[in-house]
Amino acid sequence: MLPHSAAYIHFPWCVRKCPYCDFNSHPLREQDDFAAYTQALNIDWQAQQHTLEEHVLFDSVFLGGGTPSLFEPEQMSPVLQKLPRSDGAEVTMEANPGTTEHHLLGGYRDVGINRLSIGAQSFSNAQLERLGRIHNNTETYAAYEQARGAGFENINIDLMWGLPEQSVGQALDDLETAIALQPEHISWYQLTIEAKTEFAVRTPILPRDAVLADIETQGLLRLEAAGYHRYEVSAFARPGFQCRHNLNYWSFGDYIGIGAGAHGKISNSSANGLTIERTLKSSQPRLYQGSPNTTSVKPVPDAERPIEFMMNVLRLVDGVNTETFVRNTGLAWQVVEPAWQRLVSQGLVRQDRIATTATGLRYLDSVLAEFLTSD
Ligand SMILES: C[S@@+](CC[C@H](N)C(=O)[O-])C[C@H]1O[C@@H](n2cnc3c(N)ncnc32)[C@H](O)[C@@H]1O
Ligand code: SF4
Known about the structure:
The protein is α/β, with parallel strands linked by helices.
């Protein structure tokens, strides 16, 4: 593993399951035991620590979910304190506005969390209800104000667009409200209907393609004009506030995954070149708690590395350089050069960098298809 790296910690419960969500999240029940879970996180970390370089320092830690903000700061503290962090490391926690209280937000800062990602989703109460959210817009404003009051200087707001029967005006109103709050970062996701979710079974009426195209075109212009620069398909930041943790994912960097259902990616140099392994923990909290140091490990063979790499880095507006390809895949650039040159000639990617053109970003699936075939 690279000496500077990232750690993801998963918190698998939510007050209730949102009908569009396919993340590893489980409705909280009486018998769920947070103390047992946090103890399992400690055991998990200790077991994985032995597989890492001795002097590993984490540049970013991301507490995601599920709803991490259901846990008290004191419950998170033991595992957080054990992770060795570099000076100024970014430590993010996802917070659901229905679960944040002022005294707790200050407590999260005290245990080292310095970036908050608030799941607003929409500022329309009618939409929040359709999305099965546990909060209304007043609670979202309150969570944001409380976070500022508690001293958070790096806040992300998660918003979704293309919501059931949403008009262009309604989607832009949501965006305008988020911009008016002046967060450092906005994640603006198009609602996708994921298999096996409630919305896949009872699919609501979604906006027509022409409406979606208008929302996207006008929203992108508005975000840019307000000083939120797009650096990834759905991520927009003020200068200096790009999410370091996600930048590492999108650069095909290494990270460890702690907690139920958490994924990791670990590379190691050996005499035979670079080995890359994907790690995965049991996703059921109960199974995970019963055996937190059990990790399933799957090597990433050379043949799969180009597509895995491109699926991540081509989401980045500015992409990466070819050295990043060589360093993070262990392969020579020549392996993908013929495919790359074909895409250059079609005007879909850049000649000087591993990045799409504006057109290529719109047709990302077609660009990626080039790397599914070998040569
Ligand atoms: C892992 S979720 C967790 C955030 C937190 N639990 C919450 O909902 O407030 C991260 C974000 O992904 C986005 N998301 C989840 N499901 C989605 C879907 N089906 N389509 C688009 N965005 C989605 C939402 O904006 C959500 O805030
Ligand atoms: S609160 Fe977040 S993680 Fe939980 S079900 Fe809803 S979207 Fe998914």
